[in-house]
Amino acid sequence: MPLTSFEHSDPYTLGIELEMQIVSPPGYDLSYASSRLNIFSAFPDNGPAPFVSDWQEFSWMYQRLETSGIVESVKDLHWDIRPSPKFGTVEVRVMDTPLTLSRAVNIAGFIQALAHWLLSERPFVPRSEDYLLYRFNRFQACRFGLEGLLTDVRTGEQRTLAEDILPLLDTLAPYAAELKGESALEAIHAEVQRRENDTAQIRRFMAEGGLLTELVREHCEIWAGE
Fold it and tell me: Does domain 3-108+118-165+194-224 fall into CATH 3.30.590.20?
C-alpha cells in the first residue's frame, strides 16, 4: 500500500484481511479462526496504530516515541498496519501466517487492489471515532472468521465477513485488473463462496484424529507441495 494512503486506511476492511490468515492453535482448538493477534495483544506496541490525520502528525508521534527511548526504529512498532518510510509503503501484517504461499500472494493482491481503490476514489474521510469499533471488528474476525459479524463504522449496519467480502471484491475488480491482479481476487471469491479457509482445513485434519506433530508435518507438505 503506498505510503501516501496511510492516513486513508480503513479500520473496517482490516477485519477482512485478518480473516484471510490462519494461526495454528498450540496443540488444541482455542475456537479462534486466528489466534496470533490475541497472543501478542498484551504487548503495548501491538494492535491498531494511534489515529493520525496526516504524515506530519505521524512524524511527531514517532519522534516522541523515539526520543523517549521506547523505540529505535519503525520496525519496533508491531501495529496491525504500519508505514515503512524506507520503502515508501504501508505494511499490513497478515501475510506471514497462511498455510500456502499462493494464499499469502492472493491476500497481498487483495490489499493492493484495496489501496488502489482508496487512492483513486477517496470513498471516505477518516475520523478518529471510526476506531471506536476497531477492536470489536478485529475480535469478530479473529474469533469467527468468515462468520464474524462486522459493524460498519459509519452506518452501524452489521453483516458477516463473507457477506461483506463478496460485494467488496466486485468493487475492487477493475482496480485489480489495472494491477494485473485479477487472479488473486478470483481465488478469494471462490474460497469465500465455499466458506473455505485454512482454519477449516486444520480442524478437519484434527477431527480425523491427527496429532499435533502430524499437523506440523501436514503443514510442511502443503507448503512444499505448491
Answer: yes
C-alpha cell at 170: 466486485
Cβ-contact 76, 134 below 8 angstroms = no
Return all residues near 91 (Cβ < 8 A) that are at least 6 apart.
1, 81, 82, 83, 84
Residue 84: which residues within 8 A CB-CB, separation 6 or more?
A: 3, 74, 90, 91
Q: How do residues 100-144 score in pLDDT, each as one tens digit?
A: 888 889 999 999 999 999 999 999 888 888 888 988 999 998 889
14-29 mean pLDDT? 51
Cα within 13 Å of Cα(208), Cβ side:
9
Task: Report d(CA 145, CA 22) in Å as an integer.
Answer: 9
Question: For residues 17 and 158, what is the distance between their CA atoms, to the nearest angstrom?
Answer: 17
The DSSP letter of residue 89 is E
Q: What is the mean pLDDT of the chain?
A: 83
- Domains of the chain by residue range: 3-108+118-165+194-224
Backbone angles phi, psi at 92, to 5 degrees: -105, 115
